[in-house]
Amino acid sequence: DAMHGVMGPYVRKVLCDELGAPANSAINCVPLEDFGGQHPDPNLTYATTLLEAMKGGEYGFGAAFDADGDRYMILGQNGFFVSPSDSLAIIAANLPCIPYFRQMGVRGFGRSMPTSMALDRVAKSMKVPVYETPAGWRFFSNLMDSGRCNLCGEESFGTGSDHLREKDGLWAVLVWLSIIAARKQSVEEIVRDHWAKFGRHYYCRFDYEGLDPKTTYYIMRDLEALVTDKSFIGQQFAVGSHVYSVAKTDSFEYVDPVDGTVTKKQGLRIIFSDASRLIFRLSSSSGVRATLRLYAESYERDPSGHDQEPQAVLSPLIAIALKISQIHERTGRRGPTVIT
After folding, report:
1. Domain Alpha-D-phosphohexomutase alpha/beta/alpha: where (predicted)?
2. Cα–Cα distance between 129 and 133 in angstroms, integer?
3. What separation in angstroms does the CA of 294 have from each of 136, 320, 338?
């Protein structure tokens, strides 16, 4: 599903004309200025046409692209969703299935700081370094240009490689098709095998959009003062039967290993003793309205715990985040605008 963005003609040319997929398997491929009245964002909130088609069980593989084609979403049969963080980690774990990486090898991986740590577990098993960067593809470009990094990705559905040094949705989809062809497994089987080997990282992003910039500034200021105070380390939060102990906090900053530039205030991180994470970050805005993003991540090693709903698993962490930030009370919101 090209969602009436610029990727439509490429989808038809590559997938249908060159690889022989049926013509009716490529939908919404005519680029339109208004994207057919829809929001061209490849996630479960907006790519509903694809999601409903996949839920029917007729198709084994589905993908959607954003307006300019650099971001993508993967779905398996019956609407099985592959999170962007899992997608990146699974690609990294299956590099031998991809001709480019068989030829070039791998020197390093990159992920944005808010992206889940699923990639890190794969990298550790491969003894390959992972570069944790601020949000923004330019940080990856530096790493790739210097030869430090071959594969990069971010939680906002973007993945890319040093052959192009950019994110490319169609490339990522072709990589997935290469993995499926080599392993002769379904999307769901590949993902579940990955979880069985590396564990599952439950992950969600919550977007509070259209906020008053002054309000978000004070929320982040007060939150930073709270979580970076030494007394916050070791604090325990009990939510139901869950008890979370704070192990580390910081205001994320990045020192570029290539040119030494320092980028500060890229998000507030709370890391708990069980490796769960909470991240608060202000997204770029026009200055008129602001977006506050909340990320939650929890790791589950036991395969018996891999079939839970992410939001159910993460609800205790979200309760902690809302308690310490007072987002709802200070913005007048009762919930996020977008959940991915």
Report:
1. 1-78, 104-198
2. 13
3. 17, 12, 11
Is the same domain home to 38 and 165?
no
Find the angle CA(39)-CA(289)-CA(335) to the nearest 5 degrees. 70
Query: Do 274 and 209 lie in a common domain?
Result: yes
Domain boundary among 30, 61, 82: 82
Question: Mind listing the pLDDT tens digit for each residue in 123-176?
Answer: 999 999 999 999 999 999 999 999 999 999 999 999 999 988 899 999 999 999
CA-based torsion, 57, 194, 274, 120: positive or negative: negative
Query: Is the same domain home to 91 and 178?
Result: yes
- Answer for the pair 85, 116: CB distance below 8 angstroms, yes or no: yes
pLDDT digits (tens, 9 = 90+) for 39-97: 999 999 899 999 999 999 999 999 999 999 999 999 999 999 999 999 999 999 999 99
**92 and 24 share one domain:** no
- What's the number of CA atoms in the CB half-sphere (13 Å) around residue 182? 15
Range of the domain at 291: 199-339
Structure tokens at 257: 């290993």
Full-model pTM: 0.95
Whether residue 319 sits in one domain with residue 263: yes
Burial 50-62 (b: 16+ CB within 10 A, else e): bbebbeeeebebb
pLDDT exceeds cutoff 80 at 15: yes
C-alpha 75/C-alpha 77 separation (Å) is 7
Q: Are strands 109-112 and 151-154 parallel, antiparallel or unpaired?
A: parallel
CA distance 112 to 301: 23
State the burial class of residue 44 (Cβ atoms within 10 Å of its Cβ: 0-12, 13-18, 19+): middle
Percent of the chain residues topping a pLDDT of 70: 99
Dihedral of the alpha carbons of 42, 47, 53, 56, in degrees to the nearest 10: 90
In a domain, 1, yes or no: no
Task: Quickly state the pLDDT bin for 232 (edges 50, 70, 90).
Answer: very high
CB 306 within 8 A of CB 300: yes
CATH of the domain at 319: 3.30.310.50
